[in-house]
Amino acid sequence: MTNNDIMPEDNSFKPQYTGRRLVRLDRTTSMKTIAAEAERVSLRLAFSTEYKNHEEDYVNAFSEADGIVFERFGVAVINDHHEDEVSELTKAPQSRRVFLYDEPERYIYSLHAKPLALTGRTLWEFICSIFGGRGRRPTPDPETSKPLPLPDQFSDDSDAYWGIQAVRLLGSPYTGKGVKVAILDTGINLAHPDFTERYIASKSFITNESVDDLNGHGTHCIGIAVGSSRGDSGIRYGVAKDASIYAGKVLSNAGSGSDSGILAGMEWAMENGCKVISMSLGASIRAGQGYSRIYDDVAKNAQDNGVLIIAAAGNDSRRSQGLVQPINHPANCPNIMAVAAMDRFLEVADFSCGSVNKEMGQRVDIAAPGVSIFSAYKDPQHYASLSGTSMATPFVAGIAALLWEQFPSASAKEIWELLKEQARPVMLSPDDVGSGLVQASVKK
Amino acid sequence: MANIPVNFIASVEPASRTHIDTIAEKLREKGCSITNVLRINGLIMGCSSGTECSLEELRVTGILHIEEDREVGAL
Predict the structure, then answer these.
(1) What are the catalytic residues of A?
(2) CATH 3.40.50.200 for domain A162-433
(3) What confidence tier does A75 reach under pLDDT thresholds 50, 70, 90?
(4) Interchain contact, A282 vs B69, CB within 8 Å
(5) From the list B45, B64, B74, which residue is nearest A260 (CB)?
(6) What is the ipTM of this complex?
């Protein structure tokens, strides 16, 4: 990833190359042919789809074979001491149309501003972390992982509502400019005065209902993610105020919808180039119940295509009565970022769902303000304060848009890691709040 | 679930996505009505005939996962 605003660390004393070779493969060639050509020069190749469950399996693959083929990337990583065989494959007439070219595998190091969570990692380790599911947690920077000297409680004031202060937005120079954000919900109040100057694309996936939001929930979530300031007072309530708004109505005015409509909305957002899809919706899950393989595959495909999907963890808990309920569908999918809610005292919200099914890969990833959150609303009220993990989710979506403005060439996985890495640590269980309270970047 | 039509969502194996219309047609031949085909993500939405004992009976060649189309609400 490149960004002119970021100066790289001085990595001159660190090794550049690992000794392995990266070989670009012709993607139209079958794996059988690739394996046969490699065998012709006595190279034994393993295939990543045979090792898709655990990162450790890839490590084993390198000891069991001479290299591994990542089919989806069209790349083979060949162990060291096989330079002659690689050279033969890329030069011989019968194989050079399959093994197109090769280059040394580099070590990759993080930059000052940490756009990449790749400290001291090789490219194949990075590829492994993608294939291995959630990817590994980046090594914490001792300087930035210390608790920040920030207030431990917040209140609304004349500049901003408490949630905006808590995510450190007022210190951020970023606005989400140029980033498309989709909010899949009950639609949008198109007549709302705070949105009249904004670019809005919209589509309804609800039969016999226009995108106009007669519920208010969708408008509220849009206001948090990509709104700006209250028109009559100038008090800030929205995060990514210059992002493009894509309002998909996948929930009816009564507040309900179906998986098929939501998936259609996700596809619409991807077709339109949205980088972030925010979904403040869900369905309850029992303890021990699995996640949807279909949503998870779609979320993985979205990530591979540079789209981050963020969803609400759910409101089923009653923590004050000792009841913590599992993360809702579809936020419980490992490839969807699950967002918990916090109050202005930085306690987890009483209703916020937790990582009850964590043994099945269903974890809270991050937390955001979600109690008494002010935002835009339907007519005639225009504004309302609401509580829920629904309100927390668009805070994370908005900050993801800010990060994409800051790092326009970042992958979805990198934005995911940055959100978690930048989160403010809080003295609560990761099962309840993941990496902590989402924070905006304050430096430019 | 015999004799009760069920709305479903089905995902198509990545290698079969170029044949997604053929797979949808196979589902129609099994009595399903198809309501939507999403090509970017390789998904088929529809409703079963209701004669199946399980949605798994609709897993024709090329279908990776098939799940009931659930109701979801605002949180």
Answers:
(1) 185, 217, 390
(2) yes
(3) confident
(4) no
(5) B45
(6) 0.93
